[in-house]
Write a structure and sequence with these properties.
Length: about 100
């Protein structure tokens, strides 16, 4: 069963807890800027086991020290609580490397 797609007001309220994230093209969006490629890839590799355990995979893109992340729940057709849970996990991992 698909997770509940959040409405605009629910998304706005959730965004208050992760201020670096925004809504872009109906997806949660964040751009991380790490000091170098090793930190960026370290972030992605460090997050991978947690992402796999959650079985909720981001759309992400890396160039040198930059990692761009977009989160959506495809089965639900939009942003769900699972996307916010994953965003918080990513934030907790990023803070160790930024």
């Amino acid at each position: 069963m698909a997770a509940h797609k959040l409405g605009e007001n629910e998304i706005a309220a959730e965004l208050e807890s992760i201020r670096e994230w925004t809504l872009v093209n109906a997806k949660l969006h964040r751009e991380y800027k790490f000091p170098d490629f090793a930190h960026a890839i370290g972030f992605m590799a460090g997050c991978a086991p947690l992402i796999e355990k959650m079985n909720h995979h981001p759309e992400w893109f890396n160039v040198y020290g930059r990692v761009v992340v977009d989160l959506t729940t495809h089965d639900s057709g939009g942003v769900t609580k699972r996307d916010f849970e994953l965003a918080k996990i990513l934030e907790s991992m990023a803070v160790k490397l930024l």
